[in-house]
Design goal:
Strand content: 15-25%
Distance between the termini: 35 Å
CATH topology of the largest domain: Rossmann fold
Subcellular location: Cytoplasm
Order of helices and strands: EHEHEHEHEHEHEHHEEEEHEH
Strand order of the largest sheet: 3-2-1-4-5-6-12
Number of strands: 12
Number of domains: 2
Function: Catalyzes the conversion of 4-hydroxy-tetrahydrodipicolinate (HTPA) to tetrahydrodipicolinate.
Radius of gyration: 20 Å
Bound molecules: NADPH dihydro-nicotinamide-adenine-dinucleotide phosphate, ligand LZUJQKHR
Helix content: 25-40%
CATH architecture of the largest domain: 3-Layer(aba) Sandwich
Catalytic activity: (S)-2,3,4,5-tetrahydrodipicolinate + NAD(+) + H2O = (2S,4S)-4-hydroxy-2,3,4,5-tetrahydrodipicolinate + NADH + H(+); (S)-2,3,4,5-tetrahydrodipicolinate + NADP(+) + H2O = (2S,4S)-4-hydroxy-2,3,4,5-tetrahydrodipicolinate + NADPH + H(+)
Shape: globular
GO molecular function: 4-hydroxy-tetrahydrodipicolinate reductase; NAD binding; NADP binding; oxidoreductase activity, acting on CH or CH2 groups, NAD or NADP as acceptor
Protein name: 4-hydroxy-tetrahydrodipicolinate reductase
Length: 272
Amino acid sequence: MASRHRITVAVAGAGGKMGSEALRALAADDRFDTVAVLVRDAGQAQASGQYTCPVYDDPERLLMEAHPDVWLDFTDARSVVHHVDRCIAFGVSPVVGATGYTPEDVARWNEACLRQGIGGIAAPNFAIGALLMMRFAAEAARFFTRAEIIEMHHDGKKDAPSGTARRTAEQMAAHREDAAGDPAAHRVSAAGITVTDAAPARGWSYQGVPIHSVRLPGLVAHQEVIFGGAGEVLTIRHDSLSRTSFMPGALLACARVREVRGMVYGLEHLLW
Ligand SMILES: NC(=O)C1=CN([C@@H]2O[C@H](COP(=O)(O)OP(=O)(O)OC[C@H]3O[C@@H](n4cnc5c(N)ncnc54)[C@H](OP(=O)(O)O)[C@@H]3O)[C@@H](O)[C@H]2O)C=CC1
Ligand SMILES: O=C(O)C1=N[C@H](C(=O)O)C[C@H](O)C1
């Protein structure tokens, strides 16, 4: 019987919290072969003997020598932008787990993927509960013109606000304008709040939604979206209590990324 081709994956940021969790999840799933990892210091990682596949600290060398089907990136905002540009140039499908990139990066990746005839997925959050939280927040934004986001993360997180908070605000803004059929509703909402450089305690305004970022030891990844109306408040909250919450979504993206074309932004596009 012909053996099924396993999807070959390279994990960038393998030495980090998410990268190491992803390596464990990939090893436990027979759809995948982890064929290479990208770490900061390949010599040191090789000497430690902790990896069973080839180890690199040069992304171009990894892409040339290992040429994986999929590049799963859990590095950071600065590195991921360069990595994904290089992946697409090499015809390797990126699954972008790292956050902190801009809408302009996503647009450039989309065009580059389309030119290469390949797919990519950039997913600010892989957890199903977080995706539902964003969906419910978008739905609620049709009915409330005022809302604020509080995102709370471990104190090792480098980027702020979180990719999830940005994506939530984007989805809320899109629904608000669509539902109202009146872009003025968005302007009223933005004008009704005092988020300015002169009032930093009021958060950072993105898409008309103030975002507040909390970084504390003991936290993993949490978000509240609070809607306020006349005499009532609606709070939608999600908690990732363990990084295992991100793994089914990350593996789904790795399994499906070569079926899409262009850069898909948000895992929800594979789910509903
Ligand atoms: N999409 C999702 O569902 C989720 C996304 N994330 C995102 O994933 C990213 C990683 O998070 P987390 O694992 O907690 O962070 P960590 O800091 O624990 O891990 C990042 C790792 O990447 C390494 N790294 C960074 N740049 C490079 C590079 N150029 N070459 C090789 N290695 C590099 C870091 O090395 P060093 O320490 O030396 O810098 C570190 O080991 C973040 O952007 C985070 O927001 C996190 C959770 C869920
Ligand atoms: O850094 C993290 O931990 C997380 N990052 C992602 C983000 O920026 O939204 C996803 C999740 O919140 C965990």
